[in-house]
Write a structure and sequence with these properties.
mainly alpha, 3-stranded antiparallel β-sheet, 15 helices, about 65% helix
Length: about 300
């Protein structure tokens, strides 16, 4: 305490009482978060016991990562500690997610032996916000569905949501898969193949066809082709011809069906990448069934 009988503390005494440095206390005073109660005859700032308590609160808030602007609002009663804490929890969560993505990117770079150019692209794509990632997918969906108003809305939504959301704690494999998927969605050949698939879907539909019939067809394809595979039926066997008739009908134009279903390796890779991003250990089950049907259509093109 000062020796003038006021019971007030100088900055030096305040520093000794709290363990903070004189420089820190002076800085906080200069910034207006710790206001002195008075000044001595020599011009020195003086603080009372409430100033000690205020200083302890300031230190706690700063150690929790709050900026001086937020500290000032709390001390002025403009915001509660709980409100500020909630805001900073959200900010910390965002920082943690960013750090996890950074870790995953670096792990991928180390594993792949990426060049500086590849690393830059990977980092850029991986750090896109969820909205920015969705925009890449939305642009892709808009192009492949453009003008095909009778296409099944179920397929549109399925395409729009496949493989978009990176988890909060992505593995290097998931980051790698997302980067490859983002590049694939912008590939002209891949877009053309997916456009062909949507054209095939829209061709046999009218505006009155219920949404979701494509899901019913997919389920039937999986069941029939899956059962055939389990029985050991080879795509080139006569029994495969009968399975195709049961699936598509006796009068189906199998050449057109094959054109709509045989979309190449890029589409298969697209499904594999989406499975990795979603954390699925195996590619979609229907991939094998689709492959069987495509091979059977090649072997039995119809009459």
């Amino acid at each position: 305490m000062t020796d003038d009988g006021t019971g007030l503390l100088t900055i030096g005494e305040l520093a000794r009482a709290t363990g903070l440095t004189v420089r820190t206390i002076r800085y906080w005073s200069d910034e207006g978060v710790l206001t002195p109660l008075a000044r001595s005859s020599g011009g020195y700032r003086l603080y009372d016991s409430e100033g000690v308590a205020r200083l302890e609160l300031i230190r706690t808030l700063r150690e929790l990562g709050l900026g001086l602007a937020d500290v000032r609002r709390v001390l002025a009663g403009e915001r509660t500690v709980a409100e500020v804490a909630a805001t900073h929890v959200a900010a910390l969560d965002a920082q943690i997610r960013a750090l996890k993505v950074t870790r995953a990117v670096l792990s991928t770079v180390a594993r792949r032996g990426s060049t500086a150019k590849e690393m830059t692209l990977m980092n850029k794509l991986a750090r896109l916000s969820a909205a920015q990632r969705q925009q890449i997918v939305d642009d892709f969906v808009e192009e492949i569905f453009h003008g095909l108003d009778t296409a099944d809305p179920w397929i549109r939504e399925r395409t729009r949501t496949i493989g978009v959301q990176l988890p909060d704690d992505p593995t290097p494999e998931q980051v790698d898969a997302w980067v490859e998927l983002a590049e694939l969605l912008q590939n002209r050949d891949f877009r053309a193949a997916m456009r062909r698939r949507i054209e095939f879907n829209a061709a046999d539909r009218t505006p009155d066809t219920p949404a979701g019939t494509s899901a019913t067809f997919l389920k039937r394809l999986i069941e029939l082709a899956g059962a055939a595979r389990e029985r050991g039926v080879a795509p080139r066997s006569p029994e495969a011809d009968a399975v195709l008739t049961e699936l598509f009908g006796a009068d189906a134009d199998r050449t057109a069906v094959l054109h709509g279903l045989d979309l190449g390796d890029q589409v298969a890779r697209y499904r594999e990448l989406a499975a990795v991003i979603k954390g699925e250990s195996e590619p979609p089950r229907f991939q094998q069934e689709f492959g069987w049907v495509v091979e059977a259509l090649k072997a039995w093109p119809g009459r």
